[in-house]
TrEMBL record:
CDD domains assigned to the protein according to its UniProt record, in alphabetical order: 7tmA_OR4-like
Membrane topology: Multi-pass membrane protein
Annotated InterPro entries: GPCR_Rhodpsn, GPCR_Rhodpsn_7TM, Olfact_rcpt, Olfactory_Receptors
Domain G-protein coupled receptors family 1 profile residue range list: 41-287
CC terms in the record's Gene Ontology section: plasma membrane
Annotated function: Putative odorant or sperm cell receptor.
Descriptive protein name: Olfactory receptor
Family: Belongs to the G-protein coupled receptor 1 family.
Compartmental location: Cell membrane; Membrane
Provenance organism: Neovison vison
Transmembrane regions listed in the UniProt entry: 26-47, 59-78, 98-120, 141-164, 205-225, 237-258, 270-289
Length: 311
């Protein structure tokens, strides 16, 4: 990331989501509240999993890592967007723009692999319950997380090395609220047609392959449960519905932006609000309000806090 190029452009102007002052005020409070929910909700999950020994299981270990990733992914874009809405200064320096792109794709790649690990965890728990603790050992869980970070870094670097060396000598207005490959590459002073297909082949293929692999795995789990006992199908579906919801919300914007040629409309920047603001705040709600173990752990934790204050 220390590579330099011959760019004349030293900063980019982020157009944002709206030019209306009234809309700016609404968006400021909207994203401020959502980001507060993201911080509190995801840190609460991580804190609860660490504190409560009943949650020291593979599923909740992966869930805590997912919460940290959601917090990190959101923090790459939302604080800057909130600041821009408050100060009306939508300027980002060239190095900060490149850093934002890099970390968006690192954490996006990590989250994709982590969602695969969570799907495998649910497959093992539902289809091979007697061997669950043997297969999903602590070593296996740590290996999943390490592999996810390795894949995420490779995924980001394999695209980033091409983009950082592009010459930028003309327009510097990015039609979005954050920096990413498609919008920034269009500002380069060279033809990026071939590079666009490199990005599509990388990010697009990973997004699409991961999405369909996850959906197929969930269908396979449901079919396996249905063959064993049709009465358990509804229970299994309830268990998996949270995972399916997260997968659909996370991958839809990615596939829209990266699977086919880069869009010329502004729809993609609105879709990515889902990934950066909505999904990270929904995950804590989905995994706590719909999860019996988490609800019990929350009550246990609240009793402990109350006892420490009043006992």
């Amino acid at each position: 990331m220390g590579t330099t190029n011959d760019s004349v452009v030293s900063e980019f102007v982020l157009i944002g989501l709206s030019n209306s002052w009234e809309m700016h005020r609404f968006l400021f409070w909207f994203f401020a509240m959502f980001y507060m929910g993201i911080i509190l909700g995801n840190l609460f999950i991580v804190f609860t999993v660490i504190i409560d020994s009943h949650l020291h299981t593979p599923m909740y270990f992966l869930l805590a890592n997912l919460s940290l990733l959601d917090l990190g992914l959101s923090s790459t874009t939302v604080p800057k967007m909130i600041s821009d809405l408050f100060t009306d200064c939508n300027i980002i320096s060239f190095p900060k723009c490149m850093i934002q792109i890099f970390f968006i794709h690192v954490m996006g790649g990590v989250e994709m692999v982590l969602l695969i690990a969570m799907a495998y965890d649910r497959y093992t728990a539902i289809c091979k319950p007697l061997h669950y603790l043997t297969i999903m050992s602590p070593k296996t869980c740590v290996s999943f997380v390490v592999a996810a970070w390795i894949v995420g870094i490779i995924h980001a670097v394999s695209q980033f090395v091409f983009v950082i060396n592009l010459p930028f000598c003309g327009p510097n207005e990015v039609d979005s609220f954050y920096c990413d490959f498609p919008r920034v590459m269009k500002l380069a002073c060279v033809d990026t047609y071939k590079l666009e297909f490199v990005i599509i082949a990388n990010s697009g293929f990973i997004s699409m392959a991961t999405f369909f692999s996850l959906i197929i795995s969930y269908i396979f789990i449901l079919v396996t449960v249905w063959k064993r006992s049709s009465g358990d199908l509804s229970k299994a579906f309830v268990t998996l519905s949270a995972h399916i919801t997260v997968v659909i919300l996370f991958f839809m914007p990615c596939m829209f932006l990266y699977v086919w040629p880069f869009p010329t409309t502004s729809l993609d920047k609105y879709l990515f609000i889902v990934d950066f603001a909505i999904t990270p705040v929904l995950n804590p709600a989905i995994y706590t309000l719909r999860n019996k173990d988490m609800r019990v752990a929350m009550r246990r934790l609240s009793r402990q806090v109350s006892c420490s204050n009043f006992c």
